[in-house]
């Protein structure tokens, strides 16, 4: 297959007849799918970051009806998003291409990362989070998937709602800014709305909860519970900071696990009572600095294995 034709297909510039030829070519041999997937990988940076995204997004919208008939050959590729912001350390983990439709899996390793999606939506991924999303949204809904924690600033498009899927709940928005935290097992879910309006749907019970600005939703004993955002500074991780104010020692250790993508063993340490009254920690200064800040108020000893990403905390001797 001519590479120039394949590049036109990736950029949504091929004709209906050319698309039919490409889909038949993809169906004829698994090696052809690998070839196209590799070409997607070569163009991934341009697809995510290039200013032409708006043009690709608009072009794909005009061609949805024509492409939908061809895409029925494809397995549906769910897309997801979740968490974080700030640095440039990232990994594009892998690409999944089924008959020409690509699903990109983005991941943040040991620091927050900011991405711009194909529709102009900004996503911050916290350390350890993964996001699955198409290079270009082409359906009636803009759907992404997330594991971990993420912050979304969604580009408004009333005709194409933005949907974030997690293992436990879905979040449906039109245009807004919100934070999501969820694990792959579906046992942890929390959404906090900073601006706009969102609907949270429990994937198990189909229970629905509509949130207004400064409200939150969490999953407790399998049911959605409405709450209030206690302090907007808790979401400054997108700017590279961890807020100490109002949090207990144990809660901060949980935050450190996400922010620095580490495991923390603190079973031998009695948890102190009380909450911090002020303060912020800069994520870029690393896990050692964060723990040393806590040591100023509650003495303890710790070791950190950087290869295993494991922190072990023990009572101070």
UniProtKB/TrEMBL annotation:
One of its GO terms (molecular function) is sigma factor antagonist activity. Keywords: Membrane, Transmembrane, Transmembrane helix. Residues 106-198 form the FecR protein domain. The keyword Hydrolase does not apply. InterPro entries: FecR, FecR_C, Ferrdict_sens_TM. It holds the Pfam family FecR_C. The chain crosses the membrane at residues 70-92. Residues 242-309 form the Protein FecR C-terminal domain. PANTHER family: PERIPLASMIC SIGNAL SENSOR AND SIGMA FACTOR ACTIVATOR FECR-RELATED, PROTEIN FECR. This is Anti-sigma factor.
């Amino acid at each position: 297959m001519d590479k120039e034709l394949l590049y036109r297909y990736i950029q949504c510039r091929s004709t209906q007849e050319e698309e039919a030829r490409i889909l038949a070519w993809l169906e004829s041999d698994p090696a052809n799918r690998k070839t196209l997937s590799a070409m997607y990988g070569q163009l991934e940076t341009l697809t995510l970051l290039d200013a032409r995204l708006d043009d690709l997004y608009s072009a794909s919208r005009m061609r949805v009806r024509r492409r939908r008939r061809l895409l029925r050959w494809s397995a549906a590729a769910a897309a997801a998003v979740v968490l974080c912001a700030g640095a440039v350390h990232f990994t594009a983990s892998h690409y999944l291409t089924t008959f020409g439709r690509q699903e990109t899996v983005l991941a943040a390793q040991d620091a927050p990362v900011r991405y711009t999606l194909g529709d102009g939506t900004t996503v911050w991924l916290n350390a350890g989070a993964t996001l699955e999303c198409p290079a270009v949204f082409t359906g009636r809904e803009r759907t992404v998937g997330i594991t971990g924690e993420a912050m979304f600033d969604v580009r408004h498009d009333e005709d194409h709602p933005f949907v974030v899927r997690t293992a436990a709940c879905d979040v449906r928005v039109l245009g807004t800014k919100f934070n999501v935290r969820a694990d792959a097992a579906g046992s942890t879910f929390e959404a906090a709305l900073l601006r706009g309006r969102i609907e949270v749907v429990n994937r198990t019970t189909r229970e629905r909860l509509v949130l207004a600005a400064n409200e939150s939703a969490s999953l407790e004993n399998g049911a959605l519970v409405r709450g209030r955002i206690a302090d907007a500074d808790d979401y400054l991780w997108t700017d590279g900071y961890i807020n100490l104010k109002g949090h207990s020692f144990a809660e901060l250790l949980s935050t450190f696990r996400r922010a620095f993508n580490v495991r923390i063993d603190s079973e031998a340490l009695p948890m102190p009572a009380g909450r911090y009254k002020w303060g912020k920690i800069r994520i870029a200064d690393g896990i050692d600095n964060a723990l040393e800040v806590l040591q100023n108020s509650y003495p303890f000893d710790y070791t950190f294995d950087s290869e295993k990403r494991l922190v072990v905390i023990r009572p101070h001797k």
